[in-house]
């Protein structure tokens, strides 16, 4: 893996924790200059401080000016943008559709879907100036099938896959590849807290996956790194499942 992205610059959103923080480390190990972007500047700075060539920026992915400033900061610091892992997103409390809160729905779409759109918009504009690049968006298994009691989350992640495939077709001849990763349940801090609150959930959540366990953040991060690398040079418009076999059912 060492050297796969040497000399390239990568933006990772949601970099303060979970999949994003692990991704920042792996991209750095692969030789990339890493822009750690997160709503929590303090969290992004803590991650960036442990990397050899990194910049921490605060970003609200639902705000166009904030996303534009993130991309501009990356280009100003490192001269170009080659890769992006648009990973920032939010999860919401499970409720059936008829009980779903409209404000929560709107906020979920704003962050998870509008946020990916805005990142694509500004990242692609920067990449077109330097001859291309590779972008990976975080979708979900909830983006390729129904997700009972998660209407906003499922809608947002279906939308992410639609955006991914549309952008992939638009820029395939211009040197920009756009793909998505679709994780199953991942062992993040939020997931650990939910299990701690109700330990019986652990077996149930693991059992959702044919491999009978949840994903580690590094497993999703490695998939994103691979899609950004030249090893995936003929892959664009794909929604890669990292789901322990859920999609095989």
UniProtKB/TrEMBL annotation:
<dbReference type="InterPro" id="IPR036291">
    <property type="entry name" value="NAD(P)-bd_dom_sf"/>
</dbReference>
<dbReference type="InterPro" id="IPR020904">
    <property type="entry name" value="Sc_DH/Rdtase_CS"/>
</dbReference>
<keyword id="KW-0560">Oxidoreductase</keyword>
<protein>
    <submittedName>
        <fullName>NAD(P)-dependent dehydrogenase (Short-subunit alcohol dehydrogenase family)</fullName>
    </submittedName>
</protein>
<dbReference type="Pfam" id="PF13561">
    <property type="entry name" value="adh_short_C2"/>
</dbReference>
<comment type="similarity">
    <text>Belongs to the short-chain dehydrogenases/reductases (SDR) family.</text>
</comment>
<dbReference type="InterPro" id="IPR002347">
    <property type="entry name" value="SDR_fam"/>
</dbReference>
């Amino acid at each position: 893996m060492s050297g796969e992205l040497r000399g390239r610059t990568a933006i990772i959103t949601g970099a303060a924790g979970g999949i994003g923080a692990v991704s920042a480390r792996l991209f750095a190990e692969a030789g990339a200059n890493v822009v750690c972007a997160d709503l929590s500047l303090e969290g992004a700075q803590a991650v960036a401080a442990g990397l050899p060539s990194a910049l921490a920026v605060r970003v609200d992915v639902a705000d166009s000016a904030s996303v534009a400033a993130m991309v501009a900061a990356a280009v100003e610091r490192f001269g170009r943008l080659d890769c992006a892992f648009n990973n920032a997103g939010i999860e919401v409390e499970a409720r059936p559709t008829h009980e779903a809160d409209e404000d929560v729905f709107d906020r979920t779409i704003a962050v998870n879907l509008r946020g990916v759109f805005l990142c694509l918009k500004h990242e692609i504009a920067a990449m077109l100036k330097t001859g291309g690049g590779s972008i990976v968006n975080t979708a979900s298994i909830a983006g390729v099938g129904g997700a009972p009691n998660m209407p906003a989350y499922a809608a947002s992640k279906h939308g992410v896959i639609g955006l991914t495939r549309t952008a992939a077709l638009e820029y395939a001849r211009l040197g920009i590849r756009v793909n998505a990763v679709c994780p199953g349940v991942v062992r993040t801090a939020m997931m650990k807290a939910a299990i701690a609150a109700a330990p019986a959930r652990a077996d149930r959540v693991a059992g959702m996956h044919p491999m009978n366990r949840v994903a580690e953040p590094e497993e999703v991060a490695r998939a994103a790194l691979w899609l950004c690398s030249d090893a995936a040079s003929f892959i664009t418009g794909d929604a890669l499942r990292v789901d322990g076999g859920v999609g095989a059912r």
